[in-house]
Every structure is written in structure tokens, then in C-alpha cells.
Write a structure and sequence with these properties.
Elements: H1 2-18, E1 22-25, E2 31-39, E3 44-56, E4 62-69, E5 73-84, E6 92-101, E7 106-114, E8 117-125, E9 129-134, E10 140-142, E11 147-148, E12 154-161, H2 167-180, E13 190-191, E14 196-197, E15 213-220, H3 225-239, E16 244-249, E17 254-256
Parallel strand pairs: 2-10, 5-7
Antiparallel strand pairs: 1-5, 2-3, 3-6, 4-5, 7-8, 8-9, 9-11, 12-15, 12-16, 13-14, 16-17
Helix pairs in contact: 2-3
Length: 260
């Protein structure tokens, strides 16, 4: 009897464990693709961050997809919307991320299929940018095309503050960066993913930053990252109530004055 009870319980666990926690629905709006380049000290990879134009009642819905990649060809199939049983009750699109890995410079045949609606063209990879050229575009939107690649040894970030009287302190921080060896450089206008450069060659402040005042900066810096970290730490300890500094490097490092 005990053995039979155990087998029944085991069967229930197996069947419950095999139960899907989602259902599938059709894709009934455009899929918006935003290119993004990840960076760390050893490599860079290209990602497609994908979201439906349609907004759902649950913010955790996903997009089912398959990706096939060869040396000169990339095939992407979007197969449906993943409607998970557990709903995060906030409005949002269905999302997924496609990691295409590290791509050598060159031209790749690109085929995108949204439930048998096919778009074909090319993905162009150069040292300076990624670009997508589609001969026909069905149920797909590319939000940032081209995506410019951030030059090696670039540092960038923002200084946020709430009192206009702290502008002199901001300038002192910028002077300190230059003292460490940061130098101005000309950047092509466009979208770099992490930031944008306007037609005048200036880096734009991020949207919805939450400060009364914010100063963005961008420089070339080939020095030691530990010096940057020490500088940000000093300003955080000394002026944490007056300035909020965030600095990024092309090694994937992020230094923030409020993190000690």
C-alpha cells in the first residue's frame, strides 16, 4: 500500500513538473528591434533587444524565437507570444533578447521571419558601426540604424546635481578627469546605444535622469581604470550630497560616486 501511494505521488510530481507554465499566442503587432553592443575587457557582442509594439496587461510576456547563425548567414524566426501563467501586473510589451555573439567585420545575409512573414536583407558589420538593410520589411521595425560602435578607450558618463551653485564643483571634477589624462575626441553623430551624439558632436544627456541639472561628458582615456575609480570614490566621499557621478568605460566598468 505504501509503495502504491509513493508511486501515485511520484507520478503526480512528474506530470506537474512537465506542465507548461505558459501558453502561446499569435504575434499581432510589429516587433521593434534595437541593436545593442555589450562590452567587457575581452570582447564585444551584438544583441537585438526585441519588443512588440503591442502593450500587454502583463509586463513579463516573452517572444518565442529561434536563431541560426553560420559564418555568413543569420536566420531569425519569431514564433509567437509567450503568455506566462504568472503575470507581473504592469503594462508592457512582450520582449526577448537575441545574442548574436562576436561578429567579424563583413556582410551577413539576414533573414527574419515573423510567423511566416519574411524579411530578408543584410547585416553589415564594420569597425565603426552595425547597420541593417532589408529589401522587404514585414512586421519588423529597426529602432536604431545604424548603431555606432564606441571607440576603444572611451569613457563617458554624467554628473547630476540639484543646486546651480554646484556647477563650479562639476567643472572641478571635469578638470580632474583631464588631469588624469582624459582628452577630447571627435565622435560621429548618431546612436551609440549607451548614449547619443548630436550633429554638433556633443554627447546628449540621458532622458528621465531625475536631477534638476545634469552634465554629460565623453573623453578618450588610455590610463589606468583604478585611477578613475579612486577619483569617483573621492568625490563620492567628499561631495556625495552635492554631486552624483556615473562613469562608464569600454571595458564594461561602471564607477558611481554613491557606491563606496
Amino acid at each position: 500500500m505504501k509503495r502504491l501511494t509513493y508511486l501515485i505521488i511520484l507520478l503526480f510530481v512528474i506530470l506537474w513538473g512537465c506542465k507548461k507554465d505558459y501558453s502561446m499566442d499569435t504575434i499581432d503587432s510589429d516587433i521593434e528591434i534595437k541593436m545593442w553592443e555589450t562590452m567587457d575587457s575581452t570582447k564585444r557582442t551584438l544583441q537585438f533587444n526585441c519588443a512588440t509594439e503591442k502593450v500587454y496587461n502583463c509586463s513579463n510576456f516573452g517572444i518565442s524565437k529561434t536563431v541560426r547563425k553560420t559564418s555568413d548567414n543569420i536566420d531569425i524566426d519569431f514564433n509567437g507570444i509567450l503568455l506566462y501563467d504568472m503575470c507581473l501586473t504592469a503594462l508592457g510589451p512582450a520582449r526577448t533578447t537575441l545574442d548574436l555573439g562576436t561578429l567579424s567585420n563583413g556582410t551577413y545575409d539576414l533573414n527574419i521571419d515573423v510567423e511566416r512573414k519574411k524579411s530578408d536583407g543584410q547585416l553589415i558589420v564594420t569597425s565603426d558601426y552595425y547597420a541593417i538593410e532589408l529589401n522587404n520589411q514585414r512586421q519588423i521595425k529597426i529602432n536604431n540604424n545604424p548603431l555606432y560602435r564606441i571607440p576603444t578607450n572611451t569613457i563617458w558618463g554624467t554628473v547630476g546635481y540639484h543646486a546651480s551653485s554646484n556647477m563650479a564643483l562639476v567643472q572641478t571634477f571635469i578638470d580632474s578627469l583631464q588631469f588624469l589624462g582624459a582628452t577630447a575626441q571627435v565622435y560621429q553623430s548618431g546612436d551609440y546605444g549607451y548614449f547619443e551624439i548630436n550633429s554638433g558632436g556633443q554627447i546628449l544627456p540621458p532622458q528621465n535622469h531625475g536631477y534638476y541639472f545634469i552634465i554629460p561628458f565623453i573623453y578618450n582615456y588610455a590610463g589606468n581604470s583604478s585611477d578613475l575609480k579612486g577619483l569617483i570614490k573621492y568625490y563620492g566621499a567628499s561631495y556625495g550630497d552635492s554631486l552624483s557621478i556615473s562613469l562608464h568605460t569600454t571595458k564594461g566598468e561602471i564607477f558611481r560616486s554613491w557606491v563606496q
